[in-house]
Design a protein that fits this description.
Elements lengths: L1 H11 L6 H30 L11 H27 L5 H4 L19 H16 L1 H20 L5 H30 L1
Length: 187
């Protein structure tokens, strides 16, 4: 807990100093995830555009989007909800009076693990399994989201680390399962 507090103080300590940084932190913590979801919609649109003659028509992005959403929703609304029922942890702004809270947030909600971290890292892991370049961009955006969640004062560093790891692990396992299922369908 001491290391958690020290890391939290470093990241959250920048909050409230520069309005532009506060705005950027709020944007990343709240709205950047919507941009990632919008990108998924763009992949679906790309799947329905006319295909090149040399490449057969397929639904590569449709499968990627569906699998990434299944993984993200599973880890967020099943696994994380189980954690929420088993463990309760106060958010930093409740526990620590010196926290800079930049967002209105429910003080009675548990913070461990981060649902945002688990959701976006599961999403990124599945996408990385399909397309490394796009997956890296999704990972970078997911990292910005979780750092911003600490910056705005709603999560401890260990909340986002455990959330990210659970998202990566579940995404990796489901990616293996989805690939196995796709191979079996072709047989």
């Amino acid at each position: 807990m001491i290391l958690d507090l020290e890391i939290f103080n470093v990241i959250n300590g920048f909050a409230g100093k520069w309005p532009w940084l506060d705005s950027l932190g709020i944007f990343c913590a709240v709205y950047l995830g919507y941009i990632l979801l919008f990108c998924l919609v763009l992949f679906l649109i790309k799947d329905f555009l006319p295909q090149e003659q040399s490449r057969p028509a397929g639904k590569k992005y449709w499968r990627m989007v569906a699998e990434s959403l299944v993984a993200a929703l599973f880890v967020r609304f099943v696994l994380v909800k189980i954690f929420y029922q088993l463990f309760f942890r106060f958010r930093p702004f409740v526990y620590y009076s010196n926290a800079h809270l930049l967002l209105p947030y429910n003080s009675g909600a548990t913070s461990f693990p981060s649902g945002h971290a688990s959701f976006y890292f599961a999403l990124s892991t599945i996408i990385f399994g399909y397309n490394k370049k796009i997956g890296i961009w999704f990972y970078i955006a997911s990292f910005l989201i979780i750092i911003a969640r600490i910056f705005v004062g709603v999560h401890w560093p260990s909340d986002v680390i455990v959330g990210a790891l659970s998202g990566i692990i579940v995404g990796w396992i489901l990616n293996k399962i989805f690939k196995r299922i796709n191979v079996l369908k072709k047989i």
